[in-house]
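Protein modeling request. Please complete all fields; requests missing the sequence field cannot be processed.
Requester role: graduate student
Desired output: 3D structure, token encoding
Chains: 1
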Amino acid sequence: MFFNELKGKLKINKIIFLVIIFFILVAIIYFIKNIDNHRFINSVFTGEDPIWTIVDGKPLEYDLAITGYEGDFKICFPGDCSENIYISYKDYDDSIILFAGSEEYSPYEMWDYLPDYVSEIKSSDINFDKIPDLIIIGFQDRAEKIWCFEGQFDYGKDYPTFLLSEITSDAVMKYLKSDYKADDVVNYFTKDYLNGKFKSYQEAYSSIVDYYVICYKDGVKYDLHFLDGDDVPELIIDYVGNALDIYTFKEGTAYKVADFITYGPHETSGFKYVPYDNTIYICQLTCKDYRELINLGRIENDKVKWCYTRDSNFWNDLDHDDVPDEEELSDEVMESFEPEIFYSNYTDNELTDEQLKEEVDNLIELEYLPLHGTHTSEELKANFSN
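Delivered output (386 residues):
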């Protein structure tokens, strides 16, 4: 009888134990389903709350400090995950998108564009172009992630816009691996150098070249040319056969005066310059070389400003498709066609048509030298130490 009573009590205790375990499991499932997982995980492992999470369901306006600029700048995070994350320039009634939402988004799915959460935001000039860049640290698809947005200069705006650079973002994530911090990102690219505090153009240009090596490895070439008339050369960064970046330097500060200006695939086309004359020439041949577009510019206010163009058509585009065909290039058509040449003036100088033609044609006839990169990063930096 004693043993039977003991068995009965043990069976009751086992049932109670299983019931308790069942309710604990239900509670855990409910907790996982309803908690803001990203905020919880971030708080546990970093000790900090994120700035915004995708499942908060609350819109947020985050005050953004942009280095070197004053104004009411805010990053606007949505409460509805179908909406975008964007920067609002309230003083200028403008905005730019940083991350795109989707109307098909649901809170229990991952979206490739919106972060799951954002933990840190920092503005810093990581590529030494005197335009602040934007670094956002967060979490996406259950992994830590860095988004580097390059600051973009717009002649029509008094503030920078930002464009996501996947090349820059991927480069720093390969190095840092995990536990990302915005200061670590800045230090990786700048190595504690601060634009505006360089001791020489050699020091500034070495730092710029280091940045390009991180992002592009051996994919670009470099050179120094005297473009604007002073005794400090400009740094030429050549995406060979594609485009140029140009940097200049003055009073401890590096400036990017040209940002990925394309010059075409032809050996006969490309950038040229007149040494020390501040005259830059770019020729683009298109339509099987039957159209020639020449742009003439100069460095002004730390940017390349295009002053004049000459646009020449050397064939009669009968069907208006911008493609010379056999009929259009026949002797009969070509002999009766006079080349069409158009001139444009983008300066403040008021010129008659004849004056404009004379000014542009005279500039085109100057003696130019090719403006391209020819050296590796090691070769260029070796010249700095000589």
